[in-house]
Amino acid sequence: xxxxxxxxxxxxxxxxxxxxxxxxxxxxxxxxxxxxxxxxxxxxxxxxxxxxxxxxxxxxxxxxxxxxxxxxxxxxxxxxxxxxxxxxxxxxxxxxxxxxxxxxxxxxxxxxxxxxxxxxxxxxxxxxxxxxxxxxxxxxxxxxxxxxxxxxxxxxxxxxxxxxxxxxxxxxxxxxxxxxxxxxxxxxxxxxxxxxxxxxxxxxxxxxxxxxxxxxxxxxxxxxxxxxxxxxxxxxxxxxxxxxxxxxxxxxxxxxxxxxxxxxxxxxxxxxxxxxxxxxxxxxxxxxxxxxxxxxxxxxxxxxxxxxxxxxxxx
Length: 315
Known about the structure:
There is one protein chain. This protein is of the alpha+beta class and 315 residues long. The protein has 2 domains: 10-71; 98-311, Aminopeptidase (3-Layer(aba) Sandwich), CATH 3.40.630. Helix content is 31%, strand content 17%. The strands form 2 sheets. The protein has a 7-stranded mixed sheet with strand order 3-4-5-6-7-9-8, sandwiched between helices. Strands 1-2 form a two-stranded antiparallel ribbon. α1 packs antiparallel against α2 and α2 (37-48) crosses α3 (59-71). The chain is globular and about 65 Å long. It starts with 9 loop residues before the first strand and ends in a 16-residue tail after the last helix.
């Protein structure tokens, strides 16, 4: 601890912490240094009532904030108690996700589709999900930060077979084309960003060659995801977003499912605060989950809590 004291507010993941709260964090870290970082983070979340809409503590976000404060010399965290190697864990590939017999035809032949929501933990389906994404998606698998939903797509026509994998997660903090289209300022964006969900991985398994299947799956997602998100997190999202690498994919399935193309990114990573993570530009697509979505994203008092499905507006 070098004696520095926070003198100005700090905004982090949509919440602004005044100097008094930052000083409280500094005292907790100093006085409870014998605890691990996780215990300190949970204590701070409880004291500041930093919670998700469903009541869960924002422990991951708090740990990230404490690490930033340590970088600024404002706190000195205890050493990590490592039980596994630091950084992203490698996904162990098995024969269970090897190539399968090809499936063909048209999407209508596979109706009704079933979007199977995966729960938390290390179940067999979760392990297969991670392996399929790691093996066959060009971005590979990484555990997403914050809120997330994972789906496996199946069909009654081929019981026991998986057609696709989908991952939805927290939105990009800033995205110029999206933010310009919504028309919000930094303060409103910080307040209501959680009302957007990012479609961060979409994988049709390579042996599934079914015409029109991708857009059909996206249409199903637009109806089911708001319900599942509301059950798990206590509020319904208003907008879906995704990024499509134009050098790899034309984005045909998103356009066929009525997603809106907004333009291209500037070629920076989603969390690139220092303008260092150069990536190839991506097309930005969004899908409104309610009427007048831009107005609601600007005027809503976040979060928008779940209402009965029959009362929800439809696009």
